[in-house]
Design brief:
By secondary structure, the protein is mainly alpha-helical. The protein contains 16 helices and 3 strands. The protein has a 3-stranded antiparallel β-sheet. Strand 1 and strand 2 form a beta hairpin. The longest helix is centred in the C-terminal third of the chain and has 56 residues. The termini are far apart.
């Protein structure tokens, strides 16, 4: 109960005024859980506080969401400061007060308060599992036990930066075609609802049969005008239901992830990215001194794909019974022969983390090249699809006019 109460402490910003050891009046601001906390912190710094008040927050202030990138930047900053010999509580104070995201600042200072109350860093971070997962906490615990926390935090920062780089590249590759499809749908809707009905009214005065293509587009326009709410409702409902079911159904996740891995063009990119993430995570965990079986638990959770999660848990089960890692990986049929052979060499030479790091580097470069190739391939395809779609609607509307002009 005490831990839960500590975790829920709200961090606010306070404006303070006081007198230093030389009798000089000074003022500033500090983040903390209460006025009493600020007074105590100032006295520890040799400042006699005369006024402490909470900084009023603006109405309708919206807190930014904490992103994985924020955690990666925080980890890099903390590692740099610990390497420079700055005490951990002071490092948290510097990083927290200097952060632009208020939500991240509150999180950092909450962890700092826990540390100052006597909790070790691993336990303080574990109280915020939404931002510091089991992998992160396990690595920090290994660093604290071995007395190399700054080195471990540097490894975590590097790991998170590389993982975020891969995610960013895949998202950027998917964003362009998705945006174009949405724009094409909007343009098509405008044509069907507003433009084509104008042509339809014009065609009624022709007194002649319309071409088949024109009739089809006019009928489509009439259907869309009559049932637009059903069309939009079905699309939104299908996407929402699929998302809801995917998040809560393990069989659904496995089915969709398996389909994604087998999909043309995008499937190989997802597979390479997943192998890179698997290799990078295991290399980081093993290099930090985490036992292999325990490390594979965290690797499974970081896989980002249900198929590879199940495969990693199967590897963990085999390794725990004494099977070599390379044999267990080969038995899943999820990893290319090159990856299995590199792992085998790493096990024989005692440099498994180094070999896994090389595998991760290789597949991260493969993802970079594949994403660049995908972007180059998608541009002409998307332009062609847009041209056929929009051009087809325009041609269908002008065909009766061309037919009438030919008759005249």
């Amino acid at each position: 109960m005490a831990q839960a109460a500590t975790a829920k402490k709200k961090i606010d910003t306070f404006q303070w005024e006081g007198v230093d050891r030389k009798g000089k009046k000074i003022k500033g601001q500090m983040d903390g859980a209460s006025t009493a906390f600020i007074n105590a912190a100032l006295r520890r710094q040799g400042v006699k506080p005369t006024k402490v008040r909470k900084t009023p927050k603006p109405l309708f202030a919206m807190k930014k969401k904490i992103k994985a990138k924020d955690v990666a930047i925080f980890t890099r900053q903390l590692a740099t400061m610990l390497t420079a010999g700055i005490p951990i509580a002071q490092a948290f104070d510097i990083v927290g007060n200097g952060h632009e995201n208020p939500s991240m600042r509150d999180l950092i200072l909450a962890v700092k308060n826990d540390i100052e109350s006597g909790t070790n860093l691993t336990q303080a971070l574990a109280r915020h599992p939404l931002y510091f997962d089991a992998l992160y906490c396990n690595l920090v615990a290994a660093g604290e036990q071995a007395g190399i926390l700054d080195n471990i935090l540097d490894k975590i920062a590097t790991y998170k930066e590389k993982i975020e780089a891969i995610k960013s590249k895949i998202k950027s590759a998917l964003f362009y075609p998705t945006a174009v499809v949405v724009v094409a749908f909007v343009i098509t809707t405008i044509l069907l609802v507003y433009v084509i009905p104008q042509f339809e009214a014009l065609f009624k005065g022709f007194g002649a049969d319309l071409p088949a293509m024109t009739k089809m587009v006019v009928n489509l326009s009439q259907f869309f005008q009559q049932w637009w709410y059903l069309i939009f409702g079905s699309i939104i409902g299908a996407v929402s239901a699929l998302t809801y079911t995917y998040k809560r159904s393990t069989p659904m996740q496995e089915t969709m992830d398996r389909i994604l891995l087998r999909a043309p063009v995008i499937g190989p990119i997802v597979k390479k990215a997943t192998i890179a993430r698997f290799s990078r995570t295991l290399a980081t965990m093993f290099g930090a001194g985490v036992p292999l079986v325990e490390a594979l638990d965290s690797v499974a959770g970081a896989a980002g794909n249900r198929v590879y999660y199940e495969g990693t848990m199967a590897i963990r089960s085999d390794v725990s019974t004494g099977m070599q890692l390379q044999a267990a990986m080969g038995a899943t049929a999820l990893f290319p022969n090159m990856v299995v052979q590199m792992v085998a060499i790493g096990e024989e030479s005692g440099e498994l983390d180094t070999m896994l790091g090389k595998v991760a580097d290789f597949y991260e470069e493969e993802v970079d090249d594949a994403v660049a190739g995908l972007s180059s391939l998608m541009e002409p395809i998307i332009m062609a699809v847009l041209g056929v779609l929009i051009g087809g609607l325009v041609i269908a509307m002008y065909l009766p006019i061309f037919k009438m002009a030919a008759t005249v």
